Amino acid sequence: MAFEGLTNKLQNAFRNLRGKGKISEADLRATMREIRLALLDADVNFSVVRDFVKKVQAKANGENVLEGLNPAQQIIKIVDDELTQMMGEETTSLIKAPKIPTIIMMVGLQGAGKTTTVGKLANRLKNDDNARPLLIAADVYRPAAIEQLQQIGNQINVPVFDEGTNVDPVKIVEDGLKQAKENHNDYVFIDTAGRLQIDEKLMKELQNIKEVANPTDILLVVDAMTGQNAVNTAEGFNDALDLTGVILTKLDGDTRGGAALSIKAVTGKPILYTGQGEKMNDLDVFHPDRMASRILG
Ligand code: GDP
């Protein structure tokens, strides 16, 4: 699992404080240094780590207000709270359109897990909310992408709208939305094209799709295994499209993963879900507080 290394290092950092009736300034400084290194080693964004350490230090130097906790527990509680804060504090849900359909535009780099995640989310809404989603195949650059979405649609029993690869994606989206309205689908997922890197042509196309679709949500699918690139990708997509949120995939992988956890702090956009595997039900709602507890071990 991601974050195992981080958990071990944080626990080591706290070990020196345990059993102490009072924590000296030197103890605190040593612990903060270890926490800082642990976060940097886990690939958390440098400036995010700096802010984090500053905040924890300020709180730790403040009045002892946490009754019933010994000094070590107090520091752990402060770190827990600040980690939660860094990842977004509250759990964020999808925005729901006041009238159907809620239109969810999914964007991301190629291989991030976008198409898989479209299936996972549609499947979740179908099972939990009895939703009737429609999936629109708007990635016309890779014929395999349309096939893959069709396969996923079959697997979860959700219809897929496609017009092959010779039609302008903007037109496909318009036609797909028309069909969704006729069929009273309550959710529409637009599976857009990805590239290996952010480029202007891709962003322009996505902006054009955004303009005609007027989506309720624009969710960026990011591969948590890509380190600092995950953060740069999120910044790039957010600048061009003003995302509503992020989905982190591949958290089941054996990665440091910390970079991805800086996304909220860097872009201001919340993580809504995490992908924990390749299967259709490997999608979890992201709870910053639970993730902080998991990281602290
Ligand atoms: P797209 O190019 O962004 O549409 O990416 P795909 O949906 O085709 O996914 C790329 C690969 O990542 C596929 O092999 C997926 O099965 C895999 N994948 C997607 N999400 C996850 C995840 O959360 N965990 C793991 N382990 N694999 C994932």
Automatic annotation (TrEMBL):
Molecular functions per Gene Ontology: 7S RNA binding; GTP binding; GTPase activity
Domain of life: Bacteria
Keyword Hydrolase on entry: yes
First-tier enzyme category under EC: hydrolase
SRP54-type proteins GTP-binding domain residues: 101-297
Residues covered by the AAA+ ATPase domain: 100-278
Keywords assigned: Cytoplasm, GTP-binding, Hydrolase, Nucleotide-binding, Ribonucleoprotein, RNA-binding, Signal recognition particle
Keyword 4Fe-4S: no
Signal recognition particle SRP54 helical bundle domain residues: 2-87
Gene Ontology BP, a term: SRP-dependent cotranslational protein targeting to membrane
Residues the entry annotates as binding GTP: 108-115, 191-195, 249-252
EC assignment: 3.6.5.4
Subcellular localization: Cytoplasm
Main location: cytoplasm
Catalytic activities: GTP + H2O = GDP + phosphate + H(+)
GO cellular component: signal recognition particle
Function, as annotated: Involved in targeting and insertion of nascent membrane proteins into the cytoplasmic membrane. Binds to the hydrophobic signal sequence of the ribosome-nascent chain (RNC) as it emerges from the ribosomes. The SRP-RNC complex is then targeted to the cytoplasmic membrane where it interacts with the SRP receptor FtsY.
Family under the similarity heading: Belongs to the GTP-binding SRP family. SRP54 subfamily.
UniProt remark on domains: Composed of three domains: the N-terminal N domain, which is responsible for interactions with the ribosome, the central G domain, which binds GTP, and the C-terminal M domain, which binds the RNA and the signal sequence of the RNC.
Protein name listed in UniProt: Signal recognition particle protein
